[in-house]
Model the fold of this input.
Amino acid sequence: MTDSKRYRGSDKRRQLMAAAAQVLHRQGVERTTIADIANAAEVPVGNVYYYFKTKDALVQAALAEHAGHLERLTGELDKLPGPRERLRALVNGWIDQRDVAARYGCPTGTLAVELDKREEGGMDLEAGRVIRLLLDWAEGQFRELGCPEPGDLALTFVGAYQGMSLLANALRDPEIMVREGNRLLTWLDSLPGAQELR
Done:
């Protein structure tokens, strides 16, 4: 296989992964077909099977895409000077995505809930691993901030995001993301150790 064919193949695979992540977030696993993902990726349906043999393989690819997105995002946030700034920037990003959250919920959280309801197991654990990435990153920020019990604070932080995304989606009200996001920002400023980084 030539380098250009290999590149085109990996490019199509990436297109399909990105499309799977987007379509599954918007439609859910059960309502999404392989044809939906192929159309979103602008790839012929028959070509999808070359890269992903089953719909479940596409779901796993979507989870990998979400994990990659989260790693890139936290990598960018890590360039900010301090943990409070990083956590605040993440919350502000959530607020900026309020319309998407109100329409579709959290990409990983909604997928985790849907996958957990399936009789065949396994992929719900994959979705949980993506959420664990965020928890671990947040815990590191709270630890660097010098807060006691950083793991518990990370659970509170990520739980608040999941809750506000769920409520914004259930009520179709993006302003919930704004109000609860601002409450999270105030909470971050009130934490021990946060004062010195203002």
